[in-house]
Amino acid sequence: MKADLVLDTKGMACPMPIVKAKKALDGLAPGQIMEVQSTDKGSVNDFQAWVKQTKHELLSYKEESGIYKFFVKKI
Amino acid sequence: MEATTGLSIMTAKELTQIVLAHEELFILDVRNESDFNDWKVEGESIDIVNIPYFDLLDGVDDALDKIPDGKKLLVVCAKEGSSKFVAEQIVEAGRTNVQYLEGGMKSWSEHLEPVKVGELNGGGSLYQFVRIGKGCLSYMVVSNGEAAVIDTLRMTDVFEQFAKAQGAQIKHTLDTHLHADHISGGRKLAEQTGATYWLPPKDAGEVTFAYEKLEEGRNITVGNTTIRIQPLYSPGHTIGSTSFIVDDQYLLTGDILFIESIGRPDLAGKAEDWVSDLRETLYSRYKGLPQDLFVLPAHFGKVTELGEGGRVMAKLSDLYRNNPGLNMKEEDAFRRAVTENLPPQPNAYQEIRQTNMGKMNPSEDEQREMEIGPNRCAVHDR
């Protein structure tokens, strides 16, 4: 999947991955896709709940050797 | 922490004191809704509200409406970072008396509070270690410079330091059964202190390490041939479950009999097979014991089970009067109660059993993750 913006939050702990993601998402235009990379396992459930609650769309989520990747489409 | 204005830190130990003293506290839990619904800080004088931190990124005004002004406020999250983030904003908004929980729910899950149960006739004392956040209970028998630890939890340092402070050397670690809700520290503590690790052989069929067999008749002595620990085979929660009678005064029931409930027989996948064992243990074996024994279980399910100083204990005769699990006359009703509509299983219980058998060796962090949530070993925990 091709993202318009890749946000690297690797090494950051709660709440920073979502704080950064929110800021980045605010700067995108509707329809654009953001990829968020995180190493914070604790944020995984939070991230999904947050996207759901913001009404944006979580296109996919996967884990690759300890790195969690979320693809979010701005609505 | 002393400060009543601005932001300060509360430790898990301080929170434990508040819960035990029934002090008033308002908690803002900023974890996500499903984690909150699964498990939270409980106390009889604690009010708690859940607003996830990611709902407060644009400011805390919405939260302020739900937090009473002038009351002591504790902000809680999974590890600490998000609670600090939210608490700082609440202080900036002008609120005072705001704290956040150091180490979050992880620290809460791992805190152990030692409580003295009583003196032993032969000299020495019995202590209970209350893991208040998860509802687990461990025990230490101390007599004449020696100690035995029963149902040791993963935080083995606490037991080592406590024994040291009592001037006692840990000689034995015993598990009443193969635990499914938490990772036993019995083997690790035994390795660290040169103690002997004891397990019921019927629960240890698949273990990958050496152990001593807990069997009826093989009494264990602690101290100067004074304190006896008598193993009593009491299957039902697991097929090997073994109770201990300590100093002819105390009955350590493991996960067979709790204060307000009884053990569930399904965590090793054999509910139907073990129902009759459980019934036999509860309705016949225990009934034949002296009824003035004090029951000391391996878990509590609700904060209402915490007594003086946090101690969890009751007379066997009182439990036969008050515990619903001991008052089901019909065998069929009993069978249904312990096999149908059971609460969800403890988090990661299969992996925890594998770990306790020595078949898995998760890292410290992984072990912590596996143990998140309440113990859920009783039939009536909802």
UniProtKB/TrEMBL annotation, chain A:
Domain UPF0033 stretches: 7-31
Short name of one Pfam family: TusA
Domain of life: Bacteria
Family of the protein in this entry: Belongs to the sulfur carrier protein TusA family.
Protein name: Sulfurtransferase TusA family protein
TrEMBL record, chain B:
Biological process, per Gene Ontology: glutathione metabolic process; hydrogen sulfide metabolic process
Catalytic activity: 3',5'-cyclic UMP + H2O = UMP + H(+); 3',5'-cyclic CMP + H2O = CMP + H(+)
Matching Pfam families: Lactamase_B (PF00753), Rhodanese (PF00581)
Molecular functions (GO terms): sulfur dioxygenase activity
Organism domain of life: Bacteria
Residue ranges, annotated region (Disordered): 360-382
InterPro entries: Metallo-B-lactamas (IPR001279), Mito_Persulfide_Diox (IPR051682), POD-like_MBL-fold (IPR044528), Rhodanese-like_dom (IPR001763), Rhodanese-like_dom_sf (IPR036873), RibonucZ/Hydroxyglut_hydro (IPR036866)
Rhodanese domain segment(s): 21-117
Chain segments annotated as coiled-coil in the UniProt record: none
Physiological role: Counteracts the endogenous Pycsar antiviral defense system. Phosphodiesterase that enables metal-dependent hydrolysis of host cyclic nucleotide Pycsar defense signals such as cCMP and cUMP.
Name of the protein in question: MBL fold metallo-hydrolase
Native species: Cohnella ginsengisoli
